[in-house]
What we know:
The chain is an alpha/beta fold. It has helices spanning 29-39, 57-67, 111-124, 147-154, 166-179, 186-195, 200-217, 223-230, and strands at 47-50, 74-78, 98-102, 130-135, 157-160.
Amino acid sequence: MGAxxxxxxLPIRLADHARLANFFPAxxxxxxxxxxxxxxxxxxAPVWVAGAPGSGRTHLLQATVAEVPAGLGAAYVPLGxxxxxxxxxxxxxxxxxxxxxxxxxxxAGDPAFEAxxxxxxEALVPRGGALVLAARADVADCGFRLPDLASRLAAGLRxxxxxxxxxxxxxALQLRARFRGLELPDETGRYLLSRVARGTASLFALLDxxxxxxxxxxxxxxxxxxxxxxx
Length: 231
Protein backbone atom coordinates (compact mmCIF):
# COMPACT_ATOMS: atom_id res chain seq x y z
CA MET A 1 0.00 0.00 0.00
CA GLY A 2 1.16 3.52 -0.75
CA ALA A 3 1.82 6.05 1.94
CA UNK A 4 -0.98 8.34 3.02
CA UNK A 5 -0.78 11.80 1.37
CA UNK A 6 0.94 14.30 3.61
CA UNK A 7 -1.36 17.14 4.57
CA UNK A 8 0.08 20.59 4.05
CA UNK A 9 -0.15 22.99 6.97
CA LEU A 10 -3.00 25.47 6.48
CA PRO A 11 -1.88 29.02 7.33
CA ILE A 12 -5.49 30.17 7.59
CA ARG A 13 -7.10 31.70 10.64
CA LEU A 14 -10.86 31.76 10.97
CA ALA A 15 -12.48 35.13 11.60
CA ASP A 16 -13.44 35.41 15.28
CA HIS A 17 -16.87 36.80 14.38
CA ALA A 18 -17.83 34.07 11.89
CA ARG A 19 -20.83 32.30 13.40
CA LEU A 20 -23.99 30.93 11.86
CA ALA A 21 -26.01 32.69 14.56
CA ASN A 22 -24.94 36.16 13.43
CA PHE A 23 -25.73 35.64 9.74
CA PHE A 24 -29.07 37.35 9.16
CA PRO A 25 -31.30 34.51 7.97
CA ALA A 26 -33.90 36.22 5.78
CA UNK A 27 -34.38 34.06 2.68
CA UNK A 28 -31.53 31.74 3.66
CA UNK A 29 -33.16 29.66 6.37
CA UNK A 30 -32.84 26.35 4.48
CA UNK A 31 -29.17 27.04 3.71
CA UNK A 32 -28.37 27.81 7.35
CA UNK A 33 -30.18 24.65 8.46
CA UNK A 34 -28.17 22.54 5.99
CA UNK A 35 -24.88 24.05 7.19
CA UNK A 36 -25.80 23.52 10.85
CA UNK A 37 -26.65 19.89 10.07
CA UNK A 38 -23.35 19.40 8.28
CA UNK A 39 -21.44 20.86 11.24
CA UNK A 40 -23.31 18.60 13.65
CA UNK A 41 -22.52 15.49 11.62
CA UNK A 42 -26.07 15.09 10.32
CA UNK A 43 -25.35 16.03 6.72
CA UNK A 44 -24.66 13.18 4.33
CA ALA A 45 -24.55 15.09 1.03
CA PRO A 46 -22.19 17.84 -0.12
CA VAL A 47 -23.52 21.37 0.35
CA TRP A 48 -22.88 23.86 -2.46
CA VAL A 49 -23.20 27.58 -1.65
CA ALA A 50 -23.38 30.03 -4.55
CA GLY A 51 -23.19 33.77 -4.00
CA ALA A 52 -21.74 36.97 -5.40
CA PRO A 53 -18.61 38.49 -3.83
CA GLY A 54 -19.54 40.17 -0.57
CA SER A 55 -22.68 38.07 -0.12
CA GLY A 56 -21.34 36.22 2.91
CA ARG A 57 -20.02 33.00 1.37
CA THR A 58 -16.75 33.06 3.30
CA HIS A 59 -18.50 33.99 6.54
CA LEU A 60 -20.84 31.00 6.14
CA LEU A 61 -18.05 28.52 5.40
CA GLN A 62 -15.86 29.71 8.26
CA ALA A 63 -18.87 29.75 10.58
CA THR A 64 -19.70 26.16 9.65
CA VAL A 65 -16.15 25.06 10.46
CA ALA A 66 -16.36 26.92 13.78
CA GLU A 67 -19.58 25.05 14.64
CA VAL A 68 -17.98 21.59 14.40
CA PRO A 69 -17.63 20.13 17.92
CA ALA A 70 -14.12 20.36 19.34
CA GLY A 71 -12.01 17.29 18.77
CA LEU A 72 -13.73 16.10 15.59
CA GLY A 73 -11.52 18.05 13.20
CA ALA A 74 -12.53 20.51 10.49
CA ALA A 75 -10.74 22.66 7.94
CA TYR A 76 -11.46 25.78 5.90
CA VAL A 77 -9.59 25.91 2.57
CA PRO A 78 -9.79 28.97 0.27
CA LEU A 79 -8.83 28.25 -3.34
CA GLY A 80 -8.97 31.79 -4.69
CA UNK A 81 -5.91 33.06 -6.51
CA UNK A 82 -4.98 35.35 -3.62
CA UNK A 83 -4.64 32.33 -1.33
CA UNK A 84 -1.95 30.80 -3.55
CA UNK A 85 -2.52 27.26 -2.29
CA UNK A 86 -1.51 24.20 -4.37
CA UNK A 87 -3.78 21.22 -5.16
CA UNK A 88 -1.89 19.15 -2.56
CA UNK A 89 -3.45 21.27 0.20
CA UNK A 90 -6.55 19.08 -0.13
CA UNK A 91 -4.68 15.81 0.33
CA UNK A 92 -4.93 14.23 3.75
CA UNK A 93 -8.14 16.06 4.75
CA UNK A 94 -10.40 13.07 4.16
CA UNK A 95 -10.18 11.95 7.78
CA UNK A 96 -11.74 15.13 9.17
CA UNK A 97 -15.35 15.53 10.18
CA UNK A 98 -15.91 18.48 7.85
CA UNK A 99 -14.02 20.30 5.11
CA UNK A 100 -15.18 23.67 3.74
CA UNK A 101 -13.69 24.64 0.38
CA UNK A 102 -14.10 28.26 -0.70
CA UNK A 103 -13.77 29.87 -4.17
CA UNK A 104 -14.08 26.53 -5.96
CA UNK A 105 -14.87 28.30 -9.24
CA UNK A 106 -11.32 29.72 -9.26
CA UNK A 107 -9.90 26.23 -9.90
CA ALA A 108 -12.69 24.66 -11.96
CA GLY A 109 -11.19 23.39 -15.22
CA ASP A 110 -7.75 22.89 -13.68
CA PRO A 111 -6.99 19.15 -14.00
CA ALA A 112 -4.77 18.96 -10.92
CA PHE A 113 -7.25 20.76 -8.68
CA GLU A 114 -10.22 18.83 -10.01
CA ALA A 115 -8.41 15.55 -9.35
CA UNK A 116 -7.58 16.71 -5.81
CA UNK A 117 -11.20 17.70 -5.18
CA UNK A 118 -12.36 14.31 -6.44
CA UNK A 119 -9.91 12.51 -4.13
CA UNK A 120 -11.15 14.61 -1.22
CA UNK A 121 -14.77 13.76 -2.02
CA GLU A 122 -14.03 10.03 -2.24
CA ALA A 123 -12.07 10.04 1.04
CA LEU A 124 -14.53 12.20 2.97
CA VAL A 125 -18.15 11.79 1.89
CA PRO A 126 -18.61 7.99 1.58
CA ARG A 127 -17.49 7.51 5.20
CA GLY A 128 -19.90 10.18 6.46
CA GLY A 129 -17.73 13.29 6.50
CA ALA A 130 -19.25 16.61 5.48
CA LEU A 131 -18.11 18.59 2.44
CA VAL A 132 -19.18 22.21 2.02
CA LEU A 133 -18.17 24.19 -1.06
CA ALA A 134 -18.70 27.78 -2.16
CA ALA A 135 -18.38 29.62 -5.46
CA ARG A 136 -19.79 32.58 -7.32
CA ALA A 137 -22.09 30.36 -9.38
CA ASP A 138 -23.97 27.09 -9.17
CA VAL A 139 -21.95 23.93 -9.68
CA ALA A 140 -23.48 23.45 -13.13
CA ASP A 141 -22.13 26.82 -14.27
CA CYS A 142 -18.54 26.56 -12.97
CA GLY A 143 -17.03 24.70 -15.92
CA PHE A 144 -15.87 21.47 -14.32
CA ARG A 145 -14.22 19.13 -16.83
CA LEU A 146 -14.00 15.98 -14.71
CA PRO A 147 -17.42 14.34 -15.20
CA ASP A 148 -17.27 12.19 -12.05
CA LEU A 149 -16.51 15.23 -9.90
CA ALA A 150 -19.20 17.38 -11.53
CA SER A 151 -21.87 14.71 -11.14
CA ARG A 152 -21.09 14.04 -7.48
CA LEU A 153 -21.12 17.71 -6.53
CA ALA A 154 -24.28 18.35 -8.55
CA ALA A 155 -26.06 15.54 -6.69
CA GLY A 156 -25.64 17.29 -3.35
CA LEU A 157 -27.60 20.13 -1.74
CA ARG A 158 -27.32 23.34 -3.79
CA UNK A 159 -28.16 26.82 -2.55
CA UNK A 160 -27.84 30.39 -3.78
CA UNK A 161 -27.47 33.06 -1.10
CA UNK A 162 -30.56 35.26 -1.20
CA UNK A 163 -29.64 38.96 -1.44
CA UNK A 164 -30.88 41.40 1.19
CA UNK A 165 -32.99 44.47 0.59
CA UNK A 166 -32.30 47.69 2.50
CA UNK A 167 -34.37 46.59 5.49
CA UNK A 168 -32.51 43.29 5.54
CA UNK A 169 -29.12 45.00 5.32
CA UNK A 170 -30.02 47.21 8.26
CA UNK A 171 -31.21 44.24 10.30
CA ALA A 172 -28.07 42.26 9.39
CA LEU A 173 -25.85 45.17 10.39
CA GLN A 174 -27.64 45.54 13.72
CA LEU A 175 -27.43 41.79 14.37
CA ARG A 176 -23.68 41.83 13.78
CA ALA A 177 -23.33 44.91 15.98
CA ARG A 178 -25.15 43.18 18.86
CA PHE A 179 -22.76 40.24 18.62
CA ARG A 180 -19.96 42.75 19.12
CA GLY A 181 -21.69 44.28 22.13
CA LEU A 182 -22.69 47.41 20.22
CA GLU A 183 -26.04 49.14 19.90
CA LEU A 184 -26.59 50.46 16.38
CA PRO A 185 -29.61 52.78 16.26
CA ASP A 186 -31.85 52.63 13.17
CA GLU A 187 -30.90 56.21 12.24
CA THR A 188 -27.17 55.45 12.32
CA GLY A 189 -27.64 52.22 10.39
CA ARG A 190 -29.62 53.97 7.66
CA TYR A 191 -26.93 56.67 7.50
CA LEU A 192 -24.27 54.00 6.91
CA LEU A 193 -26.35 52.32 4.20
CA SER A 194 -26.73 55.64 2.40
CA ARG A 195 -23.04 56.58 2.56
CA VAL A 196 -20.96 53.44 1.98
CA ALA A 197 -20.81 50.48 -0.40
CA ARG A 198 -23.78 48.25 0.30
CA GLY A 199 -22.19 44.82 0.09
CA THR A 200 -22.45 43.13 3.46
CA ALA A 201 -18.71 42.45 3.55
CA SER A 202 -17.82 46.15 3.24
CA LEU A 203 -20.49 47.12 5.78
CA PHE A 204 -19.24 44.60 8.31
CA ALA A 205 -15.63 45.68 7.76
CA LEU A 206 -16.70 49.27 8.48
CA LEU A 207 -18.49 48.06 11.60
CA ASP A 208 -15.19 46.62 12.85
CA UNK A 209 -13.59 50.06 12.45
CA UNK A 210 -16.49 51.77 14.19
CA UNK A 211 -16.31 49.28 17.05
CA UNK A 212 -12.64 50.06 17.65
CA UNK A 213 -13.27 53.81 17.48
CA UNK A 214 -16.25 53.56 19.83
CA UNK A 215 -14.23 51.61 22.39
CA UNK A 216 -11.30 54.03 22.17
CA UNK A 217 -13.46 57.11 22.60
CA UNK A 218 -16.17 55.74 24.86
CA UNK A 219 -18.83 57.15 22.53
CA UNK A 220 -21.97 55.55 21.16
CA UNK A 221 -22.59 55.01 17.45
CA UNK A 222 -24.58 58.17 16.83
CA UNK A 223 -24.88 59.74 13.38
CA UNK A 224 -22.59 62.71 14.29
CA UNK A 225 -19.92 60.32 15.63
CA UNK A 226 -20.07 58.09 12.56
CA UNK A 227 -20.13 61.09 10.22
CA UNK A 228 -16.96 62.43 11.81
CA UNK A 229 -15.23 59.09 11.31
CA UNK A 230 -16.20 58.35 7.70
CA UNK A 231 -16.52 61.86 6.40
